[in-house]
Amino acid sequence: MNNYKILTPTLRGSFTERLAELEMLVGDWLELEQTEGRSLRYTKIFLSDAQNQHQQLVESDLFQHLLSSKPYTEVEQTPANGSKVMLLLMTSDTDNGALFHSLRLSDSETRGLNSYVQTIALFEKYMSILRDMGLDMKTHLVRTWIYVADIDVNYAGVVKARNDVFAREGLTADTHFIASTGIGGRTDCRTACVAIDFLTYPHIQESDKKYLKALTHLNPTHEYGVAFERGTRLQLPSSLLYYISGTASIDNKGEVVYLGDIRRQTARLLENIGALLADGGATMHDIKYFIIYLRDFSDYDTVNRMMSQIYPDIPRAIVHAPVCRPQWLVEMECVAEK
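Structure (tokenized):
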């Protein structure tokens, strides 16, 4: 079974002081997890200023001693609780064979290139990795996270590039797409307008997957020109895993609902997530964590209070990251397990 922990430092000092506190918190938690037979599998690192914090992070004892030996991703999505850094850690008592690739482009690979070209380059990097392992995207890629700088400007190029790559690789509305979150985010390379994380399961077959629908609540994504699955359920030897894509306040006609109302948008997207999980035989109580993306920092208290009231026992990371449609004030993704 997998376990998840979200950690933020309590100190409000320098970035290095906060990393030092996190080193103690992470170390204590991993020791406790070890007594339950679980070890670290993956870390997601949220930063408030990747360009200035990246080097301090990778040189820190926290990173060198505790995090660097396992897969990790680093993204500038400022923690909405006022911290400079937040961690999402996953531990497990089994190895399900999943591979995590956090692919980034350097300044020399991005300078002068638009979001379409950069997205194509990242997918080409990933597919080269797959070819070397004898795998293919259509069968073995299960989940992506696409981080887009200046998303209101650059998202259209990302969408077109992904559509073109998927069409070439045989992923269509008649076959399937991939569960995904496309969201605002940056790397430490300021000329990079796109970064992508890929989750691959080398040993799964198509029969192990169910693509989750909730047609009473959500329309198929291809109807408005994008190519991703609302959610995917994996049948693994020891559990069912549910990867729910970034979900917002949308109806079954593809329209944004409750414009300008953060509370009602939050309630609607939670209803949508519940409908997707139900299609795979799960409930909201099977969720292991939420990542919550806010367009406006000032909505933090409202959303955090709602989540504390409705799902107080489910860990959540709330970050500042604009959603792909300006009218969406909030988006959430989650992982569930049975």
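The two ends are 9 Å apart (CA to CA). The mean pLDDT is 97.
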